[in-house]
Amino acid sequence: MTHEKASAPSRSTLVITAHAGDFVWRAGGAIALAASRGERVTIACLTFGERGESAKAWREGRSLEEIKEIRREEAEKAAAILGAEIVFFDAGDYPLIATPELTDRLVGVYRQTQPDIVLTHPLDDPYNGDHPAAARMALDARVLAQAIGYPVEGEVIGAPPVFFFEPHQPEMCGFKPEVLLDITDVWETKRRAMECLAAQQHLWDYYTDLAVRRGVQLKRNAGPNLGLPHRTCAEAYMRPYPQVTGELA
């Protein structure tokens, strides 16, 4: 009698994003890579970016509810292309206010998804207070989700590593590219997801150029024998917590 070996549970990635487009520009490559490996990716989208990141729709005379629906559809299409699930909180942007209720909802998402890694914004951004607010709630909820006595349904989580994705103006946000992720194999997928965000079309080329620049840096730091293609694309990340490892690599 033969016994089939039980398959390992799929890894889980949780992305916590302030606005409907942020996860695409900043972490679309990481999301697509994880999904391509059959891993589960869940995006917790706190707002639609309806007030502060939808200027084109406002100039067209759209109502607030129409703009929310436009941004929802864009984000759903982008997430589907990347291979991720998306959950909308509709918490309101400009400003996004950190509240105990929102944090509780995030704790619930942590416990439901049991993430192996978490991607979110850095804690500093002098140009957009919504981003640090989202990051602060992401970190607070991560700690609370580990507490067995915290009264939110679901199993407690471990301590998943957190990666801050690159902000729009990294030099002003104290961001250093500590981790460079090769996204060359999924670049075209990320670009298609970016093109779902018609409300922010002016950013398509900006983030294409950034991916190429970070790819150049990746090649300079990767050593001579990786066989990287001439046009390498990458995303940059920071780590707020120490890396835990048994081997330096």
From TrEMBL:
Q: Which is an annotated Pfam family here?
A: PIG-L
UniProt keyword list: Zinc
Query: Domain of life, per the record?
Result: Bacteria
Q: Does the keyword Protein biosynthesis apply?
A: no
Q: InterPro entries from the entry?
A: GlcNAc_PI_deacetylase-related (IPR003737), LmbE-like_dom_sf (IPR024078)
The Gene Ontology terms for molecular function here are: hydrolase activity, acting on carbon-nitrogen (but not peptide) bonds, in linear amides
One GO biological process term is: glycoside metabolic process
Q: Which SUPFAM superfamilies match?
A: LmbE-like
For this entry, the protein name equals: PIG-L family deacetylase
Q: Which organism is it from?
A: Streptomyces scabichelini
